[in-house]
């Protein structure tokens, strides 16, 4: 394959590597009515109540809207993600997502805006075949090298941890229900992807703010040959497991209320 002549990216690419983390959230530009909520009793019980997404990711917000959870308060965790990369990818994403959920829940439980009915947090990492946890690319050169490495490997893994919390109606310790899951998807890039295509994709800056350096739901789909597992897990939020967690924490609260009522009747 012929060497690709490197030329610097434009001075003001949207977004740049330096400013990606500080770009403010923009209102959704999706046209048409929002989807109706799923007609499930437990989901209906939180409609109109305060639901917090502990993530600044617009992709996660859009995915939750697909199951009808569109009226969200977006409150990202401000605690640095400082867990050791020597942890297994499974442990790393789970601890990071749990920290996000606990931090936001603790800061909002006595908020003037009202107690949250749900707090949903997630963390996604891309893992190389050697087990290296890939961060967001630090520069254009790092971005190119990252995508070439993924192309030249047989496949790589994407792990997403989801943590859902809800306050319990009773004062039973610890006062909240917490459920979590970690999902895994295998992704294979096309081995015939040219250096020209990688450079062209990098210069779109679509993947500049994404772990692993690509967005499968956007232009980055041209890099992917196939996946094994959940597509929305690679996007950043596996919907079916997330819905199961939401139902479980809400059911936990129902069970506690029933136990409390039975105890009062016995007295």
Summarize the structure in short.
Helix content is 33%, strand content 18%. With 267 residues, it is of the alpha/beta class. Strands 1, 2, 3, 4, 5, 6 and 7 form a 7-stranded mixed sheet that branches.
Q: What do these coordinates show?
A:
- By secondary structure, the chain is an alpha/beta fold.
- The chain is built from seven helices and seven strands, in the order H-E-H-E-H-E-E-H-E-E-H-E-H-H.
- Strands 1, 2, 3, 4, 5, 6 and 7 form a seven-stranded mixed beta sheet that branches.
- A hairpin with a 5-residue loop joins strand 3 and strand 4.
- Helix 4 crosses helix 5.
- The N and C termini lie far apart (80 Å).
- About 8% of the residues have low confidence.
